[in-house]
Design goal:
alpha+beta, 41% helix, 760 residues
Length: 760
């Protein structure tokens, strides 16, 4: 039976044994950039084992840790055994003594073992007679290893020895957990920093190219976007009639460099630039001269109608064009291609001034577009006033099949017949239909005269042929709908009165570019929206950790008006003492910079929470390192600390909305002193202190939960309190009611965090 003296002895011994691990953890926390790898634990583990062996006066002690699959134990550290024979030895789960302790998660003490029997492979040759083993448990009580001791004496282990073993195993599990969590947080912080840098660079280049209006401006902007760190020399050539012309350059080529990239490059030459234009492929290489090696890259700038130019870069030294630089260069030339395409369209519109009135109407349709199908129908309606009597628009769906989106006739009396072309006879992707050819080849196709043979080849059946004859098909032009280098559909204009001429074909191509922009914009909206949602969800905590004694529910609703993500966030963590630290906040702005700063701020707050475990301390710590973290946006934030055992609550605010406390008598906003937002210098924040009682729910939220824009701050907050107060008082129920009361069309994101004391 364990006495109080025994228990005190166990505690003192355990404290001494885990001191090496404690020192390791403190050194890791003191240096956030320290390299912590699995082998860093070995000296601390061995020091602890040697102390254990001396304390228990046993022959051998060892630590065996489970692999990731949990089906094998690997000897990690030992004292009293030949380490060359033991470290790294594996034991399958369920085999021998230590593996059985891992499988059962229960301690084991064997007073008398049969002689000459090894209880584990790591003990081969030691022949122990008594053994004590304890499981090492992780934070979720999942076994991650075994800590054991063996002696050549029978009945060597008493309850005290076994108790010391188990307590040290528990402390070891906690230390391993802390280091693993720290590594995950640090990796997340670094990833967020890298993501923020990449996004900033991408946005800067995109914004600068979007402002260009001519080909030369595009070339100059591309060269300017590449700093000397990317290459010692940069240049952009643009395509002329029969040659490439250097439009912009920067930097100095290495001495002795002879790349064959003159100011003017003939398309028939052997220059890497001419080859890139001809093949439309990226080329990388290394050239050796008397002065050393130089890496180079040539990237064609390809628009939907072919290569329009090329970007070349030279850097001193081999292997200087890294994968990251290649990815950035690829992004730059894609953006440059789009910018060149925009410049070409501007020039084409200037040359077609006589069509300005028509395209003004088309632009109005585009500006009012909110539904792809309806917009295409309106554009087809507009097209038949200028090109032919019939307009058909076919779009490539996501699954690859052709969907006929619009079919219009200039004469309303004949529209029912054209409606049949829409509903009954869309193009068969396996046929020779002009729309299929245009989409497949990316080239327009037309005929001045539609003979009976041609008409039969274009139709799917006798019924289809008869319908086309009844409509009087005479001439057609089919133009691919191409945007950003991708064919997304085809537009077919049919004349029943005359043969199409060159001007009408050019006009159809111009109109098709407008139609393509609608389709491409709709697709881009969906793609960017989906990407933004993935980015935002990856920056938010995947799940809120379980907090003993506390019931928690969270919600996040993204804005559905616009493409960009926001910077609203929530987080909750359980401190070592058992207190629950929670935070809800909002980074100013509604773009990817805001989302990136949100992820960075969460990581920084988590990293500082260990040293600043109170609301005011954490807010002050964030203020003190704001400039070092490089944050450019202000942030409002509320931080709370809850003691689950007593319900005592402390809340600090950096310019954020006061939390709402929902109880039996209604709902009221807590009088939390509203300090200045983060990013603004301020003295130490005041803290509101109070208590949450059983049956009460505390709700923290962001501005998307209130409707200040339309009804004002006071009325919208009163409405929030009214909704939260009526009904079941649980975090889930309160969040459900608040979400149900938020408008379906939102310009702001919504973050909610509700908690209450666990009634069980």
């Amino acid at each position: 039976m364990l006495t109080i003296e025994n228990l005190l002895a166990i505690e003192r011994a355990a404290a001494a044994l885990v001191d090496p691990l404690s020192r390791l953890w403190r050194s890791v926390r003191a240096d956030a950039d320290a390299s912590v790898v699995p082998r860093s634990l070995d000296p601390a583990l061995r020091e602890a084992l040697m102390a254990m062996r001396r304390l228990l006066s046993v022959d051998a002690v060892a630590i065996e840790l489970a692999n990731r699959a949990g089906d094998e134990l690997i000897a990690r550290a030992a004292a009293g055994l030949d380490e060359e024979l033991t470290i790294g030895t594996g034991t399958r789960a369920g085999e021998r003594t230590a593996a059985k302790v891992l499988a059962s998660s229960e301690p084991l003490m064997v007073a008398e073992l049969p002689s000459a029997v090894a209880v584990d492979p790591v003990q081969e040759g030691s022949h122990p007679r008594s053994l004590a083993a304890a499981p090492i448990l992780g934070h979720d009580h999942h076994p991650i290893g075994v800590f054991w001791a063996a002696s050549s004496e029978a009945e060597r282990f008493a309850l005290v020895g076994q108790g010391i073993l188990q307590l040290v195993a528990d402390r070891l599990g906690a230390a391993l957990d802390r280091i693993e969590i720290f590594e995950r947080e640090r990796a997340a912080r670094r990833e967020a920093e890298q993501l923020a840098t990449r996004i900033a660079r991408i946005q800067r280049v995109t914004a600068e190219l979007a402002a260009t209006r001519s080909s030369d401006e595009v070339a100059a902007t591309v060269v300017r976007s590449l700093d000397p760190a990317h290459g010692t020399w940069r240049g952009v050539w643009l395509l002329g009639e029969k040659h490439l012309e250097l439009s912009a350059e920067s930097g100095d080529a290495p001495p002795g460099w002879e790349p064959g990239w003159e100011h003017t490059v003939e398309l028939e030459s052997s220059s890497p630039l001419a080859a890139a234009i001809a093949s439309q492929t990226v080329t990388y290489g290394v050239t050796t001269t008397s002065t050393g090696e130089s890496s180079w890259a040539v990237l064609p700038i390809v628009t939907h109608d072919g290569a329009r130019g090329a970007l070349a870069l030279v850097a001193r030294g081999a292997d200087r064009v890294t994968p990251d630089l290649r990815a950035f260069l690829a992004l730059v030339v894609r953006q440059a291609a789009q910018a060149l395409e925009r410049a070409r369209l501007v020039e084409a519109e200037r040359q077609a001034a006589e069509r300005a009135s028509f395209f003004a109407q088309a632009a109005q349709v585009l500006a009012e577009a909110d539904d792809l199908a309806a917009t295409l129908v309106r554009l087809a309606d507009l097209a038949v006033t200028k090109v032919g009597e019939i307009c058909l628009i076919d779009v490539v769906a996501e699954d690859g099949h052709l969907a006929r989106m619009a079919a219009k006739h200039r004469d309303p009396a004949l529209q029912p017949l054209v409606d049949r072309l829409l509903a009954e006879f869309p193009p068969d992707p396996r046929s020779e239909h002009p729309a299929v050819r245009a989409i497949t080849t990316g080239e327009p196709t037309w005929s001045e005269d539609m003979s009976e043979a041609l008409l039969r080849a274009m139709t799917l059946s006798d019924e289809h042929f008869a319908l086309a004859r009844s409509l009087g098909f005479r001439s057609f032009v089919t133009v691919p709908l191409a945007a950003s280098g991708t064919v997304v559909g085809a537009m077919t204009s049919v004349s029943t009165s005359h043969s199409f001429g060159r001007d009408e074909i050019i006009f159809a191509e111009d109109l098709a570019s407008h139609v393509a922009s609608v389709v491409e914009r709709a697709r881009r909206y969906e793609s960017v929206f989906r990407t933004s949602m993935i980015l935002q969800s990856s920056l938010l905590p995947p799940r809120v950790p379980e907090a003993p004694g506390v019931v928690v529910d969270t919600r996040y609703l993204t804005a559905n008006q616009g493409l960009e993500v926001g910077g609203d966030f929530y987080d909750l963590l359980v401190l070592p003492a058992g207190d629950v630290l929670f935070m809800v906040g909002d980074v100013a702005g509604h773009d990817r910079d805001a989302a990136a700063q949100m992820g960075h701020l969460r990581s920084a707050a988590r990293a500082l929470a260990g040293r600043s475990p109170t609301p005011s301390a954490l807010i002050s710590a964030l203020r003190s390192v704001w400039g070092l973290l490089g944050f450019e946006r202000i942030v409002t934030m509320v931080v709370g600390l809850l003691d689950p055992s007593s319900g005592e609550l402390a809340i600090g605010s950096a310019g954020h909305y006061a939390p709402l406390l929902v109880g039996a008598s209604g709902a009221a906003f807590l009088p939390v002193p509203p300090g200045p937002p983060l990013g603004v210098e301020a003295p130490r924040s005041d803290v509101w202190r109070g208590k949450i009682e059983a049956g009460q729910v505390l709700l923290a939220y962001t501005d998307g939960a209130v409707d200040e824009r339309t009804v004002g701050s006071d009325e919208s907050m009163a409405h929030l309190a009214e909704i939260a107060a009526v009904g079941e008082r649980s975090p889930v129920a309160v969040c459900d009611r608040v979400v149900a009361g938020i408008a379906s069309q939102r310009r702001d994101d919504v973050a909610l965090l509700a908690l209450s004391l666990d009634p069980s």
